[in-house]
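Q: what does this look like with acetoacetyl-coenzyme A bound?
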Amino acid sequence: MAEMILIETHGKVGLIRLNRPAALNALCDPLMAELGAQLLAFDADPAIAAIVLTGSEKAFAAGADIKEMLPRRYPDVLFNDFITQWETITRIKKPVIAAVAGFALGGGCELAMMCDIVLAADTAKFGQPEINLGVIPGAGGTQRLTRAVGKAKAMEMILSGRMMDAAEAERANLVARVVPAEQLIPEALKLGEKLATLSPVALMVAKQAVNRAFETTLSEGVRVERSLFLPLFGTPDQQEGMAAFAEKRKPRFGQS
Ligand code: CAA
């Protein structure tokens, strides 16, 4: 069977390409298992500092695999913990950048939203069309889309299945920025390479702190931020970063 994901490394950046072109990268169980295993492998690999996840020019991913889901009934999805393995990506400690071209629909949009940073090609189209299948988003879409773009747009998209193009997604804060399609992978790798020069500990803790903002109140979030910020003064990277600034030189992070 063809590999469902393709792996490349570019310096300290691990690139994962979803590879089911005939099905527009529909996210079937074997693909999600391969993806989860590779994410964990990159996370554990000291030679990798950041991860880029992408699809094809036509589709980042057109959602969960509808043909795989069709015969499933409630006991199957309940006892087999359907969707649980999708959440591996949310446990990755290194920064994960989604590079989205073409369709990011249903579970594809949800997968992109589980990444830390979303870059979009000008060809990207985002949507939660599950309502057309008689269901609702099941991998966090009702929650993450609403937190990202607000109730007005999330409710319209989820109830009607309407797609957003890249320009609207940028205006609505669903993506960090839009780039010309041919620049998508170079830009994502460049961002990954930039992150790879920074303190791995500070990046990991920064992710945790920002993600906390989605989970808690402002005062509790600020308390969490402080509890993550202060211990950074015990790290070699804090000394290196501040000394390098004072000495007008480039810092060399992650040396010990
Ligand atoms: N699952 C399974 N197969 C899919 C698929 C999906 N989500 N999306 C596309 N495909 C397959 C098509 O069946 C087709 O295969 P065949 O050639 O064997 O017929 C192939 O990919 C190409 O697709 P189209 O011919 O439909 O391509 P198009 O350019 O005409 O349309 C599209 C593109 C608008 C994305 C359309 O394919 C589409 O609407 N796809 C389904 C999108 C969707 O509903 N996603 C949500 C899934 S449910 C979900 O994700 C649940 C969750 O929250 C976890």
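The CA atoms of residues 27 and 227 lie 37 Å apart. The longest strand covers residues 5-10.
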